[in-house]
Amino acid sequence: DKEVRAIFLRLFAQLFQGYRSCLQLIRIHAEPVIHFHKAAFLGQRGLIENDFLTKVLNGMAFAGFVSERGPPFRACDLFDELVAFEVERIKAEEGNPPKMIKHVRELAEQLFKNENPNPHIAFQKVPRPTEGSHLRVHILPFPRINECRVQELLQEGLARSQGAPPATRGDKKCVVPAGPPVGTFPNL
After folding, report:
1. pLDDT per position as a tens digit, 40-55
2. I want to staple 93 with a disulfide (CB 3.0 to 4.6 A). Which of 25, 72, 100, 123 is the partner?
3. Where is this region: Disordered (predicted)?
């Protein structure tokens, strides 16, 4: 699963290399608007006649991609690193399948670590009910909730949270690396 996702991550990193150099931040409105200059992106990569890429850039998914990833100051992730710093590595691996597979496995491992930051905590799977279990009559009714106990637990939790430091999110915002300009990439 993670290796397939890593392959698609590499594919989209190759496809959109240099997209940040074609973003325009328009500050006329109260909220800045981010515009992607499609013609410049396609022209600099020599792909004006590429029907597939043109359709991808005109799609709603790409518009969402630009609005989400366009801001110059936000939390960076693995995709940003690939687009900005791994351009040469991806290009060099095109003719060397073992190196490409090694890189895909490294990316898959990073994806796994991102999703499972605490691998020592194992989640137990809930077993499937046996066949015909829904026909059994010995199912116990759901117990009634003790309102007094619920209030006690809420008060205890509030008392503990007031003394605790505020929770911070793990994502640190930074300036998104632009990567190399679009014109330095080979045609697809």
Report:
1. 888 888 888 888 888 9
2. 100
3. 159-188
